[in-house]
Amino acid sequence: MRGNLSRKRLVEFVAFCDEFAPYFRFLHEDTQGNTIATTSLWGDRLDEYDYTDYGVPLHAPVALDGRWIAGIASGATDVSIVTLSNSDMLVPNELIGCELRVALEDAGAAKQVFLAGTVISHLGALVKIHDPGHKIATAWNQTAQGQVHKPSVCFYDMREGPRSGSG
């Protein structure tokens, strides 16, 4: 995501929840008025947008906001294990094929600014990602030790075609 979220405004009333409470989504804009994200009533990122040089929007649907990630550890060769803080909100295998993206604020080299790994396994609170060289796990653990600022982390649904439960 480009920079931080600036002002926000109500986008739309979406629906009533099970408790008949209203559910809203919020639109976030950059300082030029371009839409850069939508969030839920609880602050979870739902969508992010970036723009090409000619102003064409690029949409990145968020599958799971990074605030639900409790930890990332190195696993087997080229696999890292992500632990979720709340696994009850997802069905098993829901994140398979999604992409975990990490954006480091103060990376030393340009190639370390953005890291990505594809989800290869998801069961309960454990999500395994393809992470060559354990770069994502290393970046996460450096933040836990206070060596760098906490990275922006999010699961993005970049898959094409019908989803689980869709017709």
Summarize it:
It is built from one helix and eleven strands; from the N terminus they run ββββββββββαβ. By secondary structure, the chain is mainly beta.
Characterization of the model:
The protein has an eleven-stranded antiparallel sheet, covered by helices on one side. The chain has one helix and eleven strands. The longest helix is centred in the C-terminal third of the chain and has 10 residues. The radius of gyration is 17 Å and the shape is globular. The chain folds into two domains: 48 residues, no CATH class; 93 residues, Beta Barrel (Thrombin, subunit H), CATH 2.40.10. It is mainly beta.
Task: Supply the helix-strand structural class.
Answer: mainly beta
Share of residues in helices: under 10%
The total domain count is 2
Number of helices: 1
Outline the biggest β-sheet. Answer: 11 strands, antiparallel
The whole-number mean of residue pLDDT values reads 75
- Stretches where pLDDT falls below 50 for ≥5 residues? 1-6, 162-167
What is the third-level CATH name, the topology of the largest domain? Thrombin, subunit H
How large is the share of residues in beta strands? over 45%
Order of helices and strands: EEEEEEEEEEHE
The separation of the N and C termini measures 31 Å
Measured on Cα atoms, how large is the radius of gyration?
A: 17 Å
Query: In which order are the strands of the major sheet placed?
Result: 1-2-3-4-5-11-8-9-10-7-6
CATH hierarchy: architecture of the largest domain: Beta Barrel
Question: How many DSSP-defined strands?
Answer: 11
Q: Name the CATH class of the largest domain.
A: Mainly Beta
Q: Which shape, going by the Cα principal axes?
A: globular
